[in-house]
Amino acid sequence: MVKYILAYLVLLISIISCNNQDQEKEPIKTTFQEVNREQILNDSITQFPDLNLPKEELIQYYRDSADLDKAIGTVNKFIEKDSLNERLWDIIATLHFENGDTLQSIKCYETAVQINPQPRYIILLGSLYAQTKNIKALQMAYLLLQSKNSLTSMEAFFIKGLYFNYTGEKEKAIVFFDKCISIEYTYMIAYREKAIALYDMGKYQDAVTVLNKAVTLQNNFDEGYYWLGRCLEKQNKPADAIDNYKTALMYSPDYIEAKTALEKLTAK
Question: Which of 79, 163, 198, 223 could join 130 in a cystine, given CB atoms 3.0 to 4.6 angstroms apart?
Answer without folding.
Answer: 163
